[in-house]
């Protein structure tokens, strides 16, 4: 008995979602040794990137920026606080709001991370311009998907 031919639209290699997913996994893997050198995980690095852009942000704001649930960020932020990289404080205006402030140690870590983008560009084998074009295309796709859900 022969198996039916799979639908071309359902072949794994034809899936954009898998191309993005597997590329994301490999991107995280490429970052791993860099991040280990400064003692961060990839999700912690993303949170620190947001804080390096804007110190004093709230948990809700960082959650929105990272497209994640505030509850899932809390353990990560507590670990960063325990490591001395940030301080979490209750807002004076609204006690329900938690504000995040970098410590000196957290600010100093930024200098060590400044070499990471160039390392990733080199690992990709593409030019910075090519990667920026790809990033813009992915962001446009993300935007369309956000509008559809």
TrEMBL record:
Annotated signal sequence range: none
Primary localization class, coarse: cytoplasm
Keyword Transcription regulation: yes
Pfam families according to UniProt: Staph_reg_Sar_Rot
Cellular localisation: Cytoplasm
HTH marR-type domain: residues covered: 13-147
Alphabetical list of InterPro entries matching this protein: HTH_MarR-typ, MarR/SlyA-like, Transc_reg_Sar_Rot_HTH, WH-like_DNA-bd_sf, WH_DNA-bd_sf
Keywords assigned: Cytoplasm, DNA-binding, Transcription, Transcription regulation
Protein name: MarR family transcriptional regulator
């Amino acid at each position: 008995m022969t198996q039916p031919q799979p639908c071309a639209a359902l072949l794994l290699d034809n899936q954009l979602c898998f191309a993005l997913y597997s590329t994301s996994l490999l991107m995280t893997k490429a970052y791993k040794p860099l991040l280990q050198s400064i003692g961060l995980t990839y999700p912690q690095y993303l949170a620190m990137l947001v804080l390096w852009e804007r110190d004093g942000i709230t948990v809700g704001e960082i959650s929105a920026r990272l497209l994640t649930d505030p509850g899932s960020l809390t353990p990560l932020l507590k670990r960063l606080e325990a490591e001395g990289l940030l301080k979490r404080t209750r807002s004076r205006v609204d006690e329900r709001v938690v504000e995040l402030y970098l410590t000196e140690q957290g600010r100093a870590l930024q200098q060590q991370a400044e070499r990471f983008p160039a390392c990733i560009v080199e690992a990709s084998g593409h030019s910075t311009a090519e990667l920026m074009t790809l990033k813009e295309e992915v962001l446009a796709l993300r935007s369309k998907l956000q509008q559809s859900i």
